[in-house]
């Protein structure tokens, strides 16, 4: 009976994935929508209902309330076209019912060859975006938790720096022992505010780039520690509609095998969990994603310590 339910959930995900989608990539803050953590990325960049880990600040801060250990988490993307994306975060429980997290995420592009109006090579430029997450969560019931992210945002480009603030609100509900439901309202009020007067003089002024506001709803099913299926549906105020889902299977209590769909793109990955040193457990995860034409595939590694 449980297997039939799992198959039913997967079929729903496949059907939904076939729906027509838009594109949020052309708006500010796109690096915050690329996904985080090789485990979740290998399962289609899903995780709103499965965020009881060191990446809770990204997928759903409400998961911090259910942490049993402190988590030190890192992620590094191997990207083409001189792009970079990396993350480091620390999350830990506050007994009896709360949890907090502090994290930093950076994305950028290096070695951008500038050219004059006549096409002659000019200076070489870099651009970068940063976000600092300050997260708090509290469980008001053993099956219901609410979390909040406060995000400090900055973007440097040429001689300009844009800055801003944003918020996420998440809810995690566990109606049954094996099933969890997650809801996340992402990038509330998030934007970059630029002052271009230093670059354009009197013709410059203040300009604001707003982020898409995104609603995510997720479902997670876990069969003991052997098998898990998670899926998310997201909708933004830019009329972009996306689906993420995937599963993982534990082999010999140490090796995780994973696969999923990130909207219409297949994802794959694996993880290795083992004892690191006394009282410290660690997990190394890898994911591979097929990129757009001309972009190449993306490889992501995460390393998480539990202590």
Question: Can you walk me through this structure?
Answer:
The protein is globular and about 65 Å long. It is about 10% helix and about 60% strand. The chain has a single domain, classed as Porin, CATH 2.40.160.60. Mean pLDDT is about 85; it is low at about 1-20. It is mainly beta and about 300 residues long. The strands form two sheets. Strands 1-2-3-4-5-6-7-10-11-12-13-14-15-16 form a 14-stranded antiparallel barrel. A two-stranded antiparallel sheet has the order 8-9. A hairpin with a 2-residue loop joins strand 13 (about 255-260) and strand 14 (about 265-275).
N to C succession of SSEs: HHHEEEEEEEEHEEEEEEEE
CATH architect. name: Beta Barrel
Per CATH, the class reads: Mainly Beta
Cα Rg: 20 Å
What are the low-pLDDT stretches, counting only 5+ consecutive residues below 50? 1-22
Structural class: mainly beta
Q: Which word captures the global form?
A: globular
Which sequence of strands runs across the widest sheet? 1-2-3-4-5-6-7-10-11-12-13-14-15-16
CATH superfamily: Outer membrane protein transport protein (OMPP1/FadL/TodX)
What about the largest sheet?
A: 14 strands, antiparallel, barrel
Measured by DSSP, the beta-strand proportion falls in over 45%
Counting structural domains, the number is 1
Termini gap? 37 Å
Total number of β-strand segments?
16
